[in-house]
Amino acid sequence: MTSPTLTRPELTAADRCDRCGAAAQVRAILRNGGELLFCGHHGREYESKLKEMDADIQR
């Protein structure tokens, strides 16, 4: 018996930036399992801080 693998769906046009509401292009998965979505602009702005927090950044 295999255990199911949880994967996050691809970003769609309905996914919005948590900061400004623009179309999301970046998903940051936090160590605690939470996630943040960012547009390209905010993804670049917060990328270094997210890396410091050891977030998994997906584009």
Summarize the structure in words:
By secondary structure, the protein is α+β, with helices and mostly antiparallel strands. The chain has one domain. It contains one helix and three strands; from the N terminus they run ββαβ. A hairpin with a 5-residue loop joins strand 1 (26-29) and strand 2 (35-38). The mean pLDDT is 92.
Give the gist of this structure.
The chain is an alpha+beta fold.
Low-confidence runs of at least 5 consecutive residues? none
The helix-and-strand class reads alpha+beta
Q: Identify the strand order in the major beta sheet.
A: 2-1-3
Number of structurally distinct domains: 1
Share in β-strands? 15-25%
Average pLDDT rating = 92
Q: How far apart are the first and last residues' alpha carbons, in Å?
A: 33 Å
Helix content: 10-25%
What value does the Rg take, in angstroms?
13 Å
Properties at a glance:
single chain, 59 residues, alpha+beta, three-stranded antiparallel β-sheet, 1 helix, 19% strand
